[in-house]
Amino acid sequence: EVQLVESGGGLVQPGRSLRLSCAASGFTFDDYAMHWVRQAPGKGLEWVSGISWNSGSIGYADSVKGRFTISRDNAKNSLYLQMNSLRAEDTALYYCAKDRTGNQEGDNWFDPWGQGTLVTVSS
Amino acid sequence: QSVLTQPPSVSGAPGQRVTISCTGSSSNIGAGYDVHWYQQLPGTAPKLLIYGNSNRPSGVPDRFSGSKSGTSASLAITGLQAEDEADYYCQSYDSSHYVFGTGTKVTVL
């Protein structure tokens, strides 16, 4: 069974940093691209960032570009999101999701998703 | 901010048919990119419902169907059931970014 388990969320002050992790199991991790998707409280879904199987292709939403860094460690079956210069508008539940292929392609979808880790940015 | 527009809510009685539209533009759906749909039950993570415009993953009831035409796509739920009460999101691709619809809350009356 494919499992994605996020961790690392919490309460952080504006301007500070936080690192999220996603532990993957049940599939060959280094065969697939991976993504972070977030959902602000009571709001819709927003794609945050994606990374190809070999880290050769990385993409970011405009809202986080220059502040967030996605990475992966295939030896540890883990995905990461380093979030710097956090803002109140970054407050959200952050989901890790598996791509359908190893590369970020236009027709790809996300399946499955983890249960999410909550990030709250507040003073 | 979403580039894919959905109605905020739709409702129907048990057994009825409801449809959810997902309206995009020439840079996403109209450019030929596939549309996918997710169901988010209250308090849970999104779950893939339809992929590649009209395909159902294993385990998804055939009451759910998807279609795409031009710059729009639609999700239909026939024989609406109480357990279908959830939020539904479409997803596609635009300018090297993955994009989601604004989301639609389905209420079973």
Query: How many DSSP E strands of chain A?
Result: 11
Q: Count of helices of chain B?
A: 0
Continuous helix count of chain A = 0
**Gyration radius of chain A, in Å:** 13 Å
Q: Class by helix and strand content of chain A?
A: mainly beta
Query: What is the averaged pLDDT score of chain A?
Result: 97
Instruction: Name the poorly predicted regions of chain A.
Output: none
Pattern of helices and strands of chain A: EEEEEEEEEEE
Strand count, sense and barrel status of the largest sheet of chain B are:
6 strands, mixed
Ends of chain A: how far apart?
Answer: 40 Å
Count of distinct strands of chain B:
9
Anisotropy-based shape of chain B: globular
The averaged pLDDT of chain B comes out at 97
Give a description of the structure.
The complex is a heterodimer of chains A (123) and B (109). Chain A is mainly beta and 123 residues long. Helix content of chain A is 0%, strand content 50%. Chain A has no helices and 11 strands. Chain A has strands at 3-7, 10-12, 18-25, 34-39, 45-51, 58-60, 68-73, 78-83, 92-99, 110-113, 117-121. The model of chain A has no long low-confidence stretch (mean pLDDT 97). By secondary structure, chain B is mainly beta. Chain B contains no helices and 9 strands. In chain B, strand 5 (64-69) and strand 6 (72-77) form a beta hairpin. Chain B is globular and about 40 Å long. Chain B starts with 8 loop residues before the first strand and ends with a strand. The model of chain B has no long low-confidence stretch (mean pLDDT 97). The A-B interface holds A 35, 37, 44-47, 50, 59, 61-62, 95, 100, 106-116 and B 1-2, 33-34, 36, 38, 44-48, 51-52, 57, 89, 91, 93, 96-103.
